[in-house]
Each structure stands twice: as structure tokens, then as C-alpha cells.
Fold Glycoside hydrolase family 2 protein.
Amino acid sequence: MTRTPFNTGWSYRRKTSIFADVQGQADSGHSIRLPHDAIIGLERRADAPSGAAGAYFPDGAFEYRTVLDVPEEWAGKHVALEFEGVYRDAMVYVNGAFAAQRPNGYAAFVVSLDSHLTYGAENTIRVDARAHQDSRWYSGAGIYREVHLWVSDRMHILEQGGIRITTPDVDFDRAVISLAATIRNSGLTTRTATVTTEILDPESRVVASETSPITVLPQSDGILRQRMYVPNPQRWSVDNPALYSARTRLDGLGGEPEIRVTHFGIRTLQLDPDNGLRINGETVKLRGACIHHDNGILGAATFADAEERRIRLLKAAGFNAVRSSHNPMSAAMLDACDRLGMLVMDETFDMWTEAKSPFDYALAFPEWWERDVEAMVAGDFNHPSVILYSIGNEIPETGNPIGSQWGRRLAEKIRELDDTRFVTNGINGFVAVLSEMALMMQGTAQVEEDAADGGVNALMGDTDDFMDQVMVSPLVTDATAESFALLDVVGMNYGDVRYELEAREHPNRIVVGSETFPSRIDANWKLVTGNAHVIGDFTWSGWDYLGEVGVGRVRYEDESQAFDGEYPWLTSWSADLDMTGSRRPMSFYRETVFGLRTTPYIAVRRPRNHGRSFTLGPWSWTDAVSSWSWNVAQGSPMILEVYSDADEIELQLNGRTVARNPVGSHRAFAADFELPYEQGELTAVAFVAGAEVGRTALRTASEDIVLDVRLDKPVLELRDGALIFAEIELRDRDGNLVNDADRPVTVGVSGAGSLAAFGSGRPATTERFDQDTHGTYDGRVLAIIRPDAPGPVEITVSAPGLAAVVVSAEVRTRAATPEQAPATGQMPS
């Protein structure tokens, strides 16, 4: 069998009727290379149907087309297409005839083409997709994840979940490797084949092997099991993400053997209320981040290098776990989590039978949930990074005895498919009793106003103390009792007030903060570290995302006080990292709270907002920036926040001490200051018991500004998920960031690559991401280049009044993997 990327040679257009085609009125389409988001390049507008939830992007229906040249010799083969994700309500047609559908926009699925192909001819493939008021965040639309072409013998290893590996018994001397291979015979005769598996250690040495025969009846599946023993196993962990490989070979069928390479890890998981979560026998507290699926300026398009970059930067910021909110994680991100050592809570759905948007997945859930759960587990099974399956997010049915039975079905289905991980659910007690609360508070002006402005998020955010009272009330306790009881780990969204209550009333219960307010991390982390039964905290959110705009913004008194940000707000602005990957001050505060940072961090509130009254919501952080370069008059009042785990912070300005304040007098891990602005060097010195333990300094940038351009990689292989990230900053010649002199920057790309996206982390903007000019935000902008062919790529960066900078990278040909060996016949170009 060969598994070949099937991402080139596609075109897309707005969906039109067949009558428009006949009359010649339809768009002929635009050539593209997958993955592709059909919406990110469309014009936003204030009256878009998606509203604040969808970042004011338009909706639409789209169709994708390509041609597959099928040679005569494939008549005896099995041919299939694997779609990693199509948003949404995908309809697949082959040669004009319906072949498959998939309502869930996040589910991977395989379409057998065998009964549709014309051999020795070109075959047309068409995929329809649409998005319209079906999501609470920016979803994008189209074939936004990769597609693969499978060509194999009629007897073959099943494409999706065909190899499943577990390590049921592990000690220091050896690990038991249990492999189950599902072999499908889609032919018309009984056949026998031989399966040989070799286990390779992280250094690619063969450390175990097994050979077994299997006979499969026609039009049937057979499961072959092999048990092997690896000596002195290297265990996968966050700090040592050691990956083994299983190279499985199916042969004896008369043609080329089928080879499947499966990566996996050897590790053990344990759970109890006294030790919490243990990985390889050691207790691990989850420093978690909730993340959405979009890739910022790339939109929803899923590129392997973008997914890996997100995980790498999140881990560098102190996180050791991510929650995929609220849908199954991409295969590329799962691979990155395995390689980099990031734990995963993978999630099924944002809704069950109760819709949250007018046309969302609830319409398909009763019929499709089981197949979608199967697809998620099949995709996750061999990934050591996955430790938790979440069956939902803030599901209203969790507070209803009848509705909660869906949770039982979901949990038991997952356990049937995979009993090696733990099952949780992101339960919000407030949402679980929302209908009862609405009846109790019916006619209350505040409730009606909040519901109109921002739905349940507004109610949660604007009535913080009231929400806590509801969370610990007997109403929530009784309503969620059954939904909590069916889980291995009780996930609580914004339920930190219940953590200690659960230990008293349910001593066998394990709890995780599946979604928490970033503004509470100091208190929440104390609850996590102080209670063995609480295994971690997942902040909302780790990486800024498109949609749910302005949830975390600072609300100034002279601006709209509505829960959502008005157009042109673009992102949530509730995250530690902005959508280009730049860390915000809240990220350094969190790192300090986690105990991972001892160096003090200086954050300065933007002086242009000095004196303006404002409010911060529970998802908000102040508008501070780590800079001492401001375009204001000398002596202007400045407010500073210094984050530290020390006792005191001393501020020194140009060598003289100007202030010394205790840490934690107003907020844990922070010292506040106000002083007049003076250019030069500002230093924060941390003291514990009177002794200096660390210091950091900010310096005013000079007016000699240059463009600083850094590529994340100078050399890369040509593959579909490959990208080059060019981080562009305004700095002076001493390397100091110039954050208060933003300007437009232009990027030109020539040679073996093209500009895929260009933008900044600015959360409210009318600028597009598909143009070659974009303004900096706080002195930064990001260009993303996609390689097109082997050879050099030259990137020219320019800005008004500054000298242009030219940098280059080299794109090299990638060697074929065993699963991508050339197949007979012509592949799409």
C-alpha cells in the first residue's frame, strides 16, 4: 500500500447550482494547494452573520475539485481517499456521483473509491463544504486539513486505526508491546498473508520482532495480534519524549509488500486521589492551556510546521499540557506533542443534542456521534501524549438525568475502544443548571441584558461572585451528580470553588480544572499544588484565536461595555500568547506562579491610557507591555507591574533607586509602582530576606531603528506541511525592541516559495492576512512562507524610512517514506 499526499492540483470556488454551470454563469474556480481555508481571505464586515463569534467573517458554501488519473492496472487494487478534516457538512462526489458525507467538520474520514472509478481514464473528485452560523468561534471552511491517497492490494491494513499498539506491562527490565493489526480483504476470494513487525528504539535500532500468518475471508476483516518484548525500555515523558516505531510489513500476496510505520511511546499512567496523576510512577501536575484549532493569520488551515511551532512555543512558556477545545486535535499537532513532550486532553464535541448555534453539529449528533468518537480514538490511539479523552464541553445535558445518559454512552464507547486512558468532561455547573437559573431569575433586567449581549459567557463573566455561589449550591451538586459519577476524572470549567468541596464529599474523586479564568491562576495553582486529588489547571486560553472577539479585552469607560468586542475586533484576546506566538505579560506572570521563573519581569501599562477608568473581566489582563521605549514626554506618569516570587522589588532608574515595594501587597506574585517616565535603563531587583536573588532591565531604544528579521529555519524539506516563519521586529542597533513606533512593513518572496500569510498579533484590525504589506503591532509582525519547489527562497523585508533586509532559506527534496513509495500509475501533480 502507498499513502501519498493528495494536496496539489485542486481548485475551489463558491458553491453554485448546476443550472448556473449550464448557463455559464458560475465561477471557473481558483487553483490552490491544500490545506485551504476558504473564508480567511474574504472581506470581514460588521453585519456579517457570524457576528462576534465568527470574528465578523462571512459564511458560505464552497466546492473543491480535482482530477485523479487512474491507470488500468489499478482495477485489481483498493483505492481510497483519507480526509483529515473538512469543515463542514462535507459531501464527496466521484465522477459526479455521491460517494460519502461527513457532517462533523473536525472528524477524519476515509472514502473508498473502488465502486466509483473508471480505470484507464481521468476521474473527477468534488468535495462540497459549508459554514453558516454553526460555531461559537471562527471555524473557517473547506478542506482545511490534509488529504491522502491510498492505493493497495485488495487485502490491506485498514487505513484508519489499522495498527493499534499498547504497552500493558512495563518495568525497568522490559516492556510488553501488544500490537493489533486489522487486515481487510475487500476482494472476492479468501486469502492468506504474512505480517512481520519490527520494533525500533528511539535510535532506530531493531529491538524486537515477530512474524505471523493471517487468513481473511472475502469482504471481511481479520484482527492479527502480536506480542513482543523490548528490553530496558526508554519511557516516554514530558521531559524525555522517547518514541519507538513499529515497522509492520504485510506480504505474501504476490505484489509489492505493504509497509506501515507506527510511532508510539512506552509509558504508564496511574490515577488515585492520594497521588493524583502519575506518569511512569511520578506525580505530574498539568500546567495546561486550552487552545482552538485555528492557526491565527493562516486561518483554519492546518500545517504541520504551524502546529509544531505552537506546541514548541507553548512548552517554552511553561505549559506541559494542552486541551483541544472543543474538537479532536489534528494529526499534525498530535505528532508534535509526541515529539516535543506535551500532554494532551483531546475533546469530542462542543455540543450534544442541545444546539449552541442555529445550525451546529447538534443537528447531526444523534446519528453521527458514534462514528465520530471512533474516528477520534482511532487517530489518538498510538499517541503517548494523549492521556485524557474529554466527551464534551459545557454541555447543558449534563444537568439533566435523561440528557446525561448521552454522557454515559460516550464514556462507555470510548472505554470500549480504548481503556488505556482516562475519560473526563468539561462540565460547567452553571451551564448545567442554566435552564433552572433562567426560570428562577426570569425577568431580571441584568440577566436579560447579559443574555442579549453575550450569552452564557457574559453571565459567567459579569457575575463572578454570583457564579461561584451557584457552583457550590445544592442545585449544581444534585444536577451534576450523575454526570460527575460516570467519569474517571471530573472536569470542571470555572469550578475551582468546588475543588475542596469535592474532596470532602467524594474522597475517591479526581478533579481537573478543564477550563479556568487566567486572572485566577495564582489562587488556582495553589489549589492544584495543595490538593493531591486536583491534577491540573487548563487556562482559557493558551494561544489567542479568531472569534469570540474581545472576551479578554480591557473595557475602558468611554468604549462599548458590551461583552463582545465590536467590529473590527478580530480575536478573543484572552490568551498567554498572541496569535503570532508572541508571549504577553500574563504568560510571564503564569510562569512565575508555576515556579518556573525566578527572574523578575517588568510590564508597563500603555501610557496613552493613563487615567482612563477601566474594568477587567475574568478573562482579561491589563494592557501592559514589557518596554521602556515610549513616545511620551519626559515626566509622564507610568504604571508598572513587576512579577516575581520574591519578597520585595526595588526599581532602579538610570542607576539610582527610585522605589522599593513588597510583592503581593495587592496581588500575589506582583509588585505595583507608579513613577515619572525618564528615558534610559530601568532595572527591577528582586530580594528575598533582604538578599538579592535576581534582576532584569529594560532600556529605551534609540531612534536608529532597523528591521530585525529572523527565520525559524534556514533549511527545510519540501513537504505539504512545511512552512518558514519570518519573525520581523523593529529594533535599535543594540537590539532593544521599538514597540511604540509601529509602521507598515512589506514582504516580497521570490524563488522556490510564496507568501502564505502576513500579519501581526493586533487583536482589533481591518487589515488582511493575504496581502504583502501589514502594520506592526508593538513592533512585531509575522510573515509565513510556503515552499513551492526545491531551491533557494529569498525574502525581502522593507518599511518606510528603514533599510531593506534580505534573508534566504533553502528548500530541499524530501526522501520518500516507506508509506509513500511510488505507486504504479500517474499521481496528481
Observations:
- Residues 445-462 form the longest helix (18 residues).
- The chain is about 15% helix and 40% strand.
- Residues 821-829 have pLDDT under 50 and may be disordered.
- The chain has five domains: 2-154, 163-269, 286-551, 601-620+630-699, 705-812.
